[in-house]
Amino acid sequence: MLTHILVKDLAIVSGLELDFEAGMTALTGETGAGKSILIDALGLVLGDKADAQLVRAGCDRAEIIAGFDLSACPEARDWLTEQDLDAGDECLVRRLLMRQGRSRAYVNGHPATGAQLQSLSEYLVDIHGQHAHQSLLRAAHQRELLDDYGDTRALATQVSDLYRAYRDRDQRLERLRAEGADRTARLELLRYQVEELAALDLDAAAIRDLDQEQKRLAHLGELQGTSGRLLQRLYEGEPSLHAELSQADSDLETLSALDERLSATRELVEGAAIQVEEAAANLRRYLDELDLDPGLMEQVEQRLTQVHDLARKYRIPPEQIPETLRTMREELGALERDDTALETLAGERDQARAAFLTAAERLSDARSQAAQRLSETVTKAMQELGMDGGRFAIEVARVPPEAATAQGLDRVEFLVSANPGQPMQPLAKVASGGELSRISLGLQVATAECGAVPTLVFDEVDVGIGGGVAEIVGRLLQTLGGTRQVLCVTHLPQVAAQAHNHLLVRKLTRADRTYTAIESLGAAERVDEVARMLGGREITRKTLDHAREMIEHSQRRI
């Protein structure tokens, strides 16, 4: 539960720090005093969207710190452990709102994201706003309320996931079938293209070698003539380079006998003669092996013509032909597998649909049972809240399987008969604003009782209610406070008198600046506040006695 909160420089709050107790706590004060500022601060520290305008004028930032006791909230402890934010039975959440820049958040001293705060808040606090009855008219909200009450949210999520899985397969199957004609034509084209390219039977390296061979054969005469002339100059001609080097070697041999310093030069010339002889031998072998077959040139030309014709046809460089063939084969294989995939996908679609319908039927049965229980509970609450003879019912109508949605097979609708003898009609058509507020309160109390969130906040949910009905509202909240921590912002003395604890919100002006202060009331101060709520500014002894009697009467039931 919520144990304490600290607020600094938020809106008209300069600084306040409060400790909270178990049970029902009433927050009261004059209109405009800022009763809801504490609820706003609690919402901000638990992930509500931050607005820089909320920072108090003249300040650079606002700070909110909230502490929670998790000893009776294992779900929150488990979540914190999963997020590596666990700190035992206590949880400290801090939120900084910056006038310039983004807000920052911390959980147990560790930085946290807004999404993490919102996830954590689902385990800690449930806030019922004063306009909750407006959302009650939406069909989606009605279905969510029923799922919360019947504890079928997990099953509803499973049904939604199964529906998406079914629809995904169904849409893929429809797309494949719609593409059937185009797929057949594409298959025929690909088979022809793959056969045509495969007939070439050349990889990228072979295509490059073929191109190089064509260049060699095209210059065969030049290669032969020049190589023959080089052989003559190097070795076989008169005089040849080898003969000249051999003569120079012989002369240097004679001279080196006279002067040893010429020995190194003689060795260089001798080596050059040997290299020229080896080069000549290589040229001789090259000329012997040179292929002068004119038929080979024709074969190479034909192969190259095929390569370049196919490259032009498919608008690709010649060396990309093997890669294009590989890509086409992959696509052809995928399309050929589609025929088998169609049968497999159809089977998967049918299995997914059956799984979805089975889960949806379980959800529908569970919703119907929860609808019966919740209808009886809210009808009873309507009698207590001054709507004698009124009836409330939840219709869970099954739609045909072909009309099913991600929400299942059900059309959930809240029906009401506000007066005896009137037929049941949709809530939006028959309930007045006051009646809708009371029905909404009955639903909130009924659904809150079945939840596990330890702290419930009711922000002026008693708007439009007064007199004896207000006392009954207070009793409902007091009863709820017996098992859960309840914070209630109220302007009704009949509700405030039922609380176990009482906080007073005051608006103060000092040095032309406005401040909000909140204080915990003792027994005598509480009588004064309830008397103010009863009688306004002029408080008589009779008013004080009435206030004291209301509080004492309510406390005897605790």
General description of the model:
- The protein has helices spanning 37-45, 74-82, 114-124, 132-135, 139-150, 153-178, 180-198, 204-218, 220-236, 241-258, 263-289, 294-314, 321-384, 427-430, 433-449, 467-480, 493-496, 523-535, 541-555; strands at 2-10, 13-19, 24-29, 61-69, 90-98, 104-107, 110-112, 125-128, 391-398, 410-417, 425-426, 455-459, 485-489, 501-510, 513-520.
- By secondary structure, it is of the alpha/beta class.
- Among the domains are: 2-130 and 453-520, Rossmann fold (3-Layer(aba) Sandwich), CATH 3.40.50; 184-334, no CATH class.
- A hairpin with a 7-residue loop joins β10 and β11 (425-426).
- α15 (433-449) packs parallel to α16.
- The model has no long low-confidence stretch (mean pLDDT 85).
Q: What are its keywords?
A:
single chain; about 550 residues; alpha/beta; Rossmann fold; 19 helices; 15 strands; about 55% helix; elongated
